[in-house]
Amino acid sequence: MKRYKTLLFDVDDTLLDFKAAENYALQKLFNEHNVVLTDDIKHFYQKMNQKLWSSFEKGEIKREELLHTRFSILFKKVGLTLNGVHLDNLYRQYLEESAVLIDGAKLLLQKLAKQYDLYVVTNGVARTQFIRLNNSELTTYFKDIFVSEEVGYQKPMKEFFNHVFEKIPHHSADKTLIIGDSLTSDIQGGINAGIDTCWFNPKGPMNVTHNPTYEIHRLQTLENMLLTPNSTKETPTTHSVLTF
Ligand SMILES: [Mg+2]
Predict the structure, then answer these.
(1) How many whole angstroms from 17 Cα to the centroid of ligand 1?
(2) CB count, 10 Å around CB of 211?
(3) pTM for this structure?
(4) Are residues 44 and 150 in the same domain?
């Protein structure tokens, strides 16, 4: 294994269970307006939201457009005309209340922080992400937290990573690894930035359109990968699934 010094972690669905937080916040938002949240509506929202975030990642739409329209569109679907900004504020408040960890995340960070410099790289909304990381007691393990809203660029943009690298003391791209669940933002971002990538793919086999340096199915695998003593295995140069 290559000797890394710096580890960049994505947050949502890598360290924190975003699906759980999203379900909780959506349910509360619908309760608040006395509307039943059906599976169909939830599915509609998830597809729309994903499409909007994907457009945001590509730089096609601004963050405000994403945040201020998604819930007005959603509630229109159930026959209610409501203010999208107000809905988003409420949703965000509920989202902040939920900080469910991905299995093994905390223990892993605890161990890794002793040997590596850990940083957060996330595309979320700054306030929400800081509160969620704080509530889940993860903040302490990171040397710094980079949120797209504050950086002014988002993953997978090279500019986002340029900013991050400028802020990391004595940064070396060669000794940096990014870990995340998204092929389009984390893995593509790492590729754009010229660093090694580790795709966290808990759902198992899936069509791979990108070419991460490593692929893992459980977070604990990182422990074996990065903390095993005398681990001097040759660095895989092609996509390799690690199954320790
Ligand atoms: Mg993610």
Answers:
(1) 9
(2) 13
(3) 0.83
(4) no
